[in-house]
């Protein structure tokens, strides 16, 4: 009951304090009463994860870790897109120095989110393909609004999701389900995602999704925070360590892959398809 009241207070626009306005592409609002931080991505039109958004996400996660928030809820300022995943323009005809910085930052941001010591939840208020799904599955709990899609669609783009994308996916889905979905590049509707367990709950609005995420975080109110966070870290240690040990190799593989003419050709066609769709409307 206490948890429900706290979460209602948070979602109903109860006392909120804007802690950070420093980052251009993210905001952090911490509710004074509940101590839960809402981290909002704000890079129109689709929250494409480019170098700057990834940097801002990382610095917001650090800020939330540092200000002793009771939990982190990740969401988006867009009414229809949680995140369109990696900004394809970072990989299409890339400047190789920037591309290196981009992938290194993606690794850094993932390590911070997946390894975060505070309870994390995603209020998925829009489409969430590929890198968007990575962010959501790196959180401990997911609540999604109907009529959107979520999944790792990399194979549809002729790309291979790196091992650590798979780790986050596998921390949520059974191996058989995860393997089939990844091989197919399958995007799940909200209802399908709930059925397979890719999300935990549905909500009729962003506000309700945030309320349900807050209720999840509230379930830890009476649990020793250090014991909870060390337990979470033990569960995630192998996945985190695997990337930490292989960061350089992972980066080199990525740079090699994006410099392949066949991949560039595929990305060009994919981008063209996205743009044609806009013109048709
Ligand atoms: C160890 C590793 C080794 C090797 C591995 C090598 C490579 C690994 C990399 C693999 C990882 C990839 C992860 C990714 O995240 S790739 C990105 C995948 N994302 C998508 O496929 C999403 C594409 N977008 C959409 O499906 C739709 O846009 C969406 C449903 C999100 C929204 O639809 P809506 O109708 O609302 O908007 P649009 O009109 O489609 O889009 C508006 C403008 O935004 C542009 N756009 C959309 N998505 C992206 C994107 N991901 N990147 C860049 N730009 C994007 C779209 O073109 C429109 O642009 P304009 O026409 O307005 O200029």
Salient structural properties:
281 residues; disordered N terminus; 10 helices; 2-enoyl-CoA Hydratase, Chain A, domain 1; alpha/beta; ClpP/crotonase-like_dom_sf; binds ligand LDFHACXW; acetylation; 7-stranded mixed sheet
Your description of this structure?
The structure is a single chain. The protein has 281 residues and is of the alpha/beta class. The chain has a single domain (4-280), classed as 2-enoyl-CoA Hydratase, Chain A, domain 1 (Alpha-Beta Complex), CATH 3.90.226.10. 52% of the residues lie in helices and 15% in strands. It contains ten helices and ten strands. It has helices at 2-11, 51-66, 96-114, 131-138, 163-170, 175-184, 190-196, 206-218, 225-258, 261-280; strands at 16-20, 26-31, 36-41, 71-76, 120-124, 128-129, 141-144, 149-151, 188-189, 201-202. The protein has a seven-stranded mixed beta sheet with strand order 1-2-3-4-5-7-10, with helices on both faces. A three-stranded mixed beta sheet has the order 6-8-9. Strand 3 (36-41), helix 2 and strand 4 (71-76) form a beta-alpha-beta unit. Helix 1 (2-11) runs antiparallel to helix 8 (206-218). The longest helix has 34 residues, at 225-258. The termini are far apart. The relative contact order is 0.14. Residues 1-13 have low confidence and may be disordered. Bound molecules: ligand LDFHACXW. Ligand LDFHACXW is lined by residues 45-46, 48, 80-81, 84-89, 127, 129-131, 153-154, 157, 159-162, 250, 253-254, 257, 274-275, 277-278. Ligand LDFHACXW binds next to helix 9 and helix 10.
């Amino acid at each position: 009951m206490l948890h429900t009241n706290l979460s209602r207070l948070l979602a109903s626009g109860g006392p909120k304090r804007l802690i950070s306005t420093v980052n251009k592409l993210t905001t952090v609002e911490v509710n004074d009463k509940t101590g839960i931080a809402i981290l909002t991505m704000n890079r129109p039109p689709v929250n494409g994860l480019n170098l700057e958004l990834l940097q801002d996400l990382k610095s917001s996660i650090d800020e939330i870790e540092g200000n002793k928030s009771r939990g982190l809820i990740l969401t988006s300022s867009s009414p229809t897109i949680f995140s369109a995943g990696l900004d394809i323009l970072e990989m299409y005809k890339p400047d190789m120095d920037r591309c290196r910085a981009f992938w290194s930052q993606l690794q850094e941001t993932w390590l911070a989110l997946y390894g975060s010591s505070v309870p994390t939840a995603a209020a998925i208020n829009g489409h969430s393909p590929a890198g968007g799904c990575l962010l959501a599955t790196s959180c401990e709990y997911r609540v999604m609004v109907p009529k959107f899609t979520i999944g790792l669609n990399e194979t549809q783009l002729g790309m291979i999701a790196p091992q650590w994308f798979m780790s986050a996916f596998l921390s949520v889905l059974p191996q058989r389900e995860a393997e089939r979905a990844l091989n197919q590049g399958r995007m799940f509707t909200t209802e399908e995602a709930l059925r397979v367990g890719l999300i935990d709950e549905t909500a009729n609005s962003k506000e309700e999704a945030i309320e349900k995420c807050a209720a999840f975080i509230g379930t830890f109110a009476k649990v020793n925070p250090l014991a909870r966070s060390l337990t979470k870290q033990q569960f995630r240690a192998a996945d985190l360590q695997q990337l930490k040990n292989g960061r350089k190799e992972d980066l080199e593989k990525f740079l090699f892959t994006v410099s392949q003419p066949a991949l560039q050709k595929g990305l060009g066609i994919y981008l063209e398809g996205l743009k044609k769709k806009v013109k048709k409307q």
